[in-house]
Design a protein that fits this description.
binds S-adenosylmethionine, Rossmann fold, Methyltransf_25, methyltransferase activity, SAM-dependent_MTases_sf, transferase, seven-stranded mixed beta sheet, S-adenosyl-L-methionine
Length: about 240
């Protein structure tokens, strides 16, 4: 690989690479044993997503899910009349999601890609959804992430995410952005607070940011108070 920095993109790629070099973690390995007791392995949609739809904060339209993994939220959106595109870099995650979509006879468009390599026509989506991907995005890619969401959304479109609470039980390191690069690690995912999310996504209008509600598997919903759930809206005039 070329180790020269001639552009901003070269700089971002170097930082991606330096963080990856230190990590043994692979999402494909993570998904290879489906029997493990991982809370989000159950095919249950996020409780906040269900609430947004039931309370008509979100209306059916075109949705993009970032980091869909085994597809539980994509399947729920498709069942609720959304046209759903999903993207994930993990082959194993997508194979699992496709199997589930077939089993439930729902239509989902699967894209295997790094979210930062997506080519999206501006203003395509009514909803961008992210459950647990954003907290794995390294700080140097956050600006790309915000640009991606802004570009993907129609004016007035919605962006919703769930992410680790800072110092929460499921993960959510409370190290500074600089510390990520000193230690060459995100320590399993970065933790956020309501204030941090409002600051990072200040170009959007914050509709609702709260702690997710704990759910037991019998509820057929996924929820954990170790996660934050946030709903933002892009300006209708943009
Ligand atoms: C914690 S899992 C959540 C999976 C799914 N959203 C769920 O809640 O069931 C995070 C997912 O984000 C994906 N991911 C992380 N960074 C990504 C990137 N840069 N591009 C594409 N996918 C990414 C991983 O492959 C993984 O499947």
């Amino acid at each position: 690989m070329k180790e020269t920095i001639n552009s901003y993109e070269d700089l971002l790629r170097m930082l991606d690479h330096l963080l990856k070099e230190e990590s043994e973690f692979s999402w494909d390995n993570f998904y290879s044993d489906r029997e493990r007791k991982v809370p989000f392995f159950e095919n249950h949609p996020d409780e906040n997503l269900v609430e947004y739809i039931e309370k008509k904060r979100l209306n059916a339209g075109k949705a993009l899910e970032l980091g869909c993994g085994p597809g539980r939220n994509a399947i729920y959106l498709s069942r609720n009349s959304f046209h759903v595109d999903v993207v994930d870099q993990s082959e194993e995650g997508l194979v699992w999601a496709e199997e589930r979509a077939k089993e439930h006879r729902v239509q989902v468009n699967f894209i295997k890609s790094n979210i930062f390599d997506l080519e999206i026509e501006e203003g395509t989506y009514d909803l961008v959804y992210d459950s647990g991907c954003f907290h794995h995005i390294p700080p140097h890619r956050r600006m790309n992430y915000i640009d991606l969401v802004k570009r993907a959304l129609k004016p007035g479109g919605n962006f919703a995410l769930t992410c680790f609470v800072e110092g929460g039980e499921l993960g959510g390191s409370d190290i500074s952005d600089w510390e990520v690069y000193r230690g060459k690690s995100m320590k399993g995912g970065l933790g956020y607070t309501k204030e941090k999310l409002m600051d990072i996504f200040h170009e959007f209008n914050a509709v609702d940011i709260r702690t997710m509600r704990d759910n037991s598997p019998e509820d057929s919903l996924f929820g954990s108070s170790a996660l934050l759930a946030a709903l933002f809206k892009k300006d209708a005039m943009e």
